[in-house]
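Loading example: each entry is read as three labelled lines plus one structure line.
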Amino acid sequence: MGDFDFQVIIESLPFLFDGLLISFQLTFLALIAGLAWGTILAVMRIWGPAPLRWFSAVYVNIFRSIPLILVIFWFYFLVPLLIGRPVGNFTSALIAFSLFEAAYYAEIMRAGLNSVSRGQVYAGLAIGLSPRQNLQYVILPQAFRNMIPVLLTQAIILFQDTSLVYVVALSDFMTSASVVAKVEGRLAEMYLFAALVYFVICFSGSLLVKHLQKKKVA
Amino acid sequence: MIKIDNIDKWYDDFHVLKGCSLEVERGEVIVICGPSGSGKSTLIKCVNALEPVDSGRIVVEETDVTARGTKLPLVRARIGMVFQHFELFPHKTVIENLMMGQIKVLKRSREAAREKAESLLKRVGLADQAQKYPSALSGGQQQRVAIARALAMDPIAMCFDEPTSALDPEMISEVLDVMVELAKEGMTMMVVTHEMGFARRVARRVVFMDQGEVKEIADTDTFFRNPETDRAKEFLSKILAH
Amino acid sequence: MDYNWNWAVLFQEPYLGWLLSGLQWTLLVAIAAWVIAFVVGSAVGILRTVPNRLVRTLAAAYVELFRNIPLLVQLFVWYFVVPELLPEDLGLWVKRDMPNPEYVTAVVALGAYTAARVAEQVRSGIQTIGKDLVNAGLAIGLTPLQNYLYIRLPISYRIIVPPLTSEFLTIFKNSSLALTIGVLELTAQARQIENYTFQGFEAFTAATVLYLVITLLVVLLMRLIDQKTRIPGSVGAN
């Protein structure tokens, strides 16, 4: 290990940076889509008629029971088949992540909505709010405040999970690092550097979550 | 027997105990009262070093509780402690709650521990509850078990931290009855409580605390008839008004 | 959709054998990693609650380090980098003579990673116990160590059976990452069947069903254990 080569890291920085952008892009888009679909699933589960409740429960439980890599493989195989023509691995990965994350966001949403006490629901109705107003002004604001730290934590997990697109050779940050590692024969440098970059980003994120949690308590 | 000598204690910047001193003689029952936040619970927890002090000394029967190197478990085993919320061990049955300390700390045999536990449960009127888990008991019953658990260690003194304040009103007397009986048998007791009826009946002296200070130590009669400080007067008028 | 269905492929050799062997490796990775995760995670979680500040900080550092780096990156570091950092003899042995290096690496990486998550559960279990209940143990004369052994840990572990179950399921799912260093576990075998037969639908369905069945079995088993060991009067008990 005496010959740790910083040069290889510096020279590959532009290439790695492009990879990092792909990782962020994938995280951001999957977060938005997953959150939207997850909210719909949660609302279906709590207030929907029986068939929708049932659908939501089955959906969430299936996606939460299988590995993300398998889901990535599923959609890498399935999406071109359904569309009838090849699509890029970014598209299939984005679909896989969105549908997969939605199952986790749905559970967070459901817990958040259920975390608002019945007393609060009654109190809102008792001062004369309509059920819809009660949802809008009393339940959702409280539920959302309770959820923010968990949602952020899940976003950090999602960002880490995007590294798994390595298995379909989508050139995110992780895949780019491993390409350089293999081409240059500098495995130790590249993987340790990748670990450091992920750590700095995710640790900063988790510090932010802690800060928000403290503010919530105060 | 218990000598609290000029102790100070801080929680960060909050001065929770300010130069408190108090001596308790063998067989004496002392009631400690005062408004909430006055430091009375903290004071009583200092006696068996559940709360460490920042300065001052506490000596229990020649053992300096506050000294470095004191074997605290052995000191604590000799001072019974009863908590506001009972604090029975939820994963153990009632009788196991009474046996644990005897076996693990006093190294008694299971048989001896069980015998002692059974006789104490009988004494607090709960012999038929031995095999139940604490959660199956009412608050009053749980607190009586907690007293029995403390007594199982053959303590030389008992500390009570608001033993009846978490109880429904109709259960208070069953716990106080046990405590009165204990007092009559000559147990040394320090009791943090707002039960002034209990204080009148069995306490020899009353300690009044306010804002971390011991404001007043008086014979029970004197305290109720003619409290020295205005704060104590005010406190008594509030607490006795209803 | 233009697709030639052929479910029978799943029951032909060698593909059926591949699936079963994949399932076996998935379980072998998950269970061995769980042992590491449980032991190391318990130790780290307990150390996060001790009075000594330095020890607490070190334990917290372990958790933050392993939680904030993607498992895939950790796996590659264990596989490609760690043998280089070891003392020469040991490094050589790992690279040349250690039996089944992919499997061992996957187990260690997954175990160390999940230990950080288990540690957080153990810590929060210990910390949900009220201060006066801890005091009650000390007040009858238990030493701090005895208090951990007889009061704090038994209560904590029974509280955290449900979250530990979900950590086990996470390890079970995460064992699929072992395919990236060449362990032919369930997901890898499904992928391989797809590559050989072009029956991706059937292969992935088979893997999905097997994951679902194992998950269901674990959930049912743990629910049983949870009910049997639950402390009377705790949340959810009847």
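Residues 30 and 171 of chain C are 6 Å apart (CA to CA).
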